[in-house]
Amino acid sequence: MSLSNTEQKLIEALERIKSGETLYTEAGRKLSISSIEDEAGVSRSLSRRYPETFNYLQAEVDKYKEAKRDKKPSELKVVRAIDEVEILREKNKLLNERLNKSLAANVALAERVKYLESLFDKQDNVVSIKK
Q1: Is 29 within 8 Å of 35 (Cβ atoms)?
Q2: How would you class 93 by CB atoms within 10 Å of its CB: exposed for 0-12, middle for 13-18, buried for 19 or more?
Q3: Which end of the chain is more exposed for a tag (fewer CB within 10 A), N or C?
Q4: Spatial distance between the Cα atoms of 113 and 116, rounded to a whole number of angstroms
């Protein structure tokens, strides 16, 4: 059986979308009958005029969706793990900043204590207050 020019365009569009090398639609667009028709440059619903080709396209779309659904939980785990790592890195950064501020405050307080102790060591500087 020979394919019409339109059917050939639809099948080529399907292959371009699956490979990610689209010509007429944005890359990464989800695979659907409408996206295939848009990529092929034909009007919407035109593929339904060719039942065999439409059934083939629909089967390919269904296979793609099923494969994506099967892959999704593991991909989600990876994405969640990456997000969790980023959150933990941000928390670590904030805690390190707080730690550095605390260390700087401790150093300043230790210097202040030394200064005050040096004042008490000099008896000349002690003034008694009488009532």
Answers
A1: yes
A2: exposed
A3: C
A4: 5
How far apart (Å, rounded) are the C-alpha atoms in residues 67 and 118? Answer: 76
User: Distance from CA of residue 101 to its chain's centroid?
Assistant: 32
User: Residue 24 phi/psi, 5° resolution?
Assistant: -120, -10
For 35-66, what is each residue's pLDDT tens digit? 999 999 999 888 899 999 999 999 999 988 88
- Answer for the pair 39, 24: CB distance below 8 angstroms, yes or no: yes
Neighbours of 6 (CB within 10 A): 18
Cα separation, 8 vs 18, whole angstroms: 15
Whether the model pTM is above 0.70: no
Give the C-alpha separation, 25 to 78, whole Å: 28
Half-sphere exposure of 90 (CA within 13 A, CB side): 6
Tokens of 80: 């969640």
